[in-house]
Design a protein that fits this description.
Number of domains: 2
Shape: globular
Strand order of the largest sheet: 4-11-5-10-9-8-7-6
Number of helices: 6
Strand content: 25-35%
CATH architecture of the largest domain: 3-Layer(aba) Sandwich
């Protein structure tokens, strides 16, 4: 298996197990951190465990190797194919030189602003405690948070760059590129490899990531599911 196979489950059972809430063969992050969940295998036992973990009418966001197939007891809320991209060589990050904007490290005191920026730009699931997953960097203009990016999933040897977003009024200034290069520099400085997920149709972002040295590893499927199971584990009729 590749270290990034079943990456949410792997994160929650290795480097980020301190965040894991579990039932059977399923794990999830606390809701305030992120809605991401995973299971050892997408089989009957995995879905049963996931249903037990999130409870009746609960929702979970998972990454699947193949497109979701309709399953009794579950409702598909939304889905999107994602490119999982990896930067193996690190050349782009190491070429960073002067002229970069000033970065600020973001934390609990910035959380509300971070959630607001994520809600506006929709980079993916983001919660009030997402910043706890790793380093989050931001750029401020006139005191306002206008761009950010940070670390999310972590597995042995790899760290994900996530929540790369810029306020619509401040695009075109190279903020996303600068933030990513700084995060890449830090990740690679720890002897790790950066990776990320991006919607397959987001050609502008993909072009930036390719310029920075990322290459597509696989296509995965981001799926949001709602459990239709009752407390008894039976499907209502």
């Amino acid at each position: 298996m590749h270290p990034l196979d079943n990456v949410i489950w792997r994160a929650l059972t290795t480097r980020q197990q301190q965040f894991a809430e579990g039932a059977g063969t399923a794990r999830r992050f606390p809701r305030e951190v992120t809605s991401l969940s995973g299971f050892a295998q997408p089989n009957d036992e995995g879905y049963r465990s996931l249903g037990e973990l999130i409870g009746p009418h609960g929702t979970a966001a998972v990454l699947l190797e193949h497109p979701y197939q309709e399953r009794e007891g579950w409702e598909l809320v939304g889905s999107a194919p994602l490119l999982e991209m990896v930067c193996e060589n690190g050349i782009a990050a190491l070429s960073c030189n002067g002229g970069q904007p000033a970065f600020v490290e973001l934390g609990a005191n910035d959380s509300l602003e971070m959630v607001e920026l994520a809600a506006l730009t929709k980079p993916g699931p983001f919660g009030i405690r997402t910043h706890e997953l790793g380093t989050y960097l931001g750029i401020r203009a006139d005191g306002k948070l206008v761009a950010m990016a940070g670390e999310r999933l972590k597995v042995p040897g790899y760290t994900e760059i996530s929540a790369v977003c810029t306020h619509p009024e401040h695009t075109g200034n190279g903020y996303a590129r600068a933030l990513m290069m700084e995060l890449m520099r830090r990740i690679q400085g720890r002897g790790e490899t950066p990776f990320l997920h991006v919607r397959r149709e987001n050609s502008r972002a993909i072009a930036l990531y390719e310029m920075l040295g990322f290459q597509t590893h696989v296509i995965v499927h981001f799926v949001v599911l709602r459990s239709l199971l009752k407390e008894s584990g039976r499907v209502p009729h």
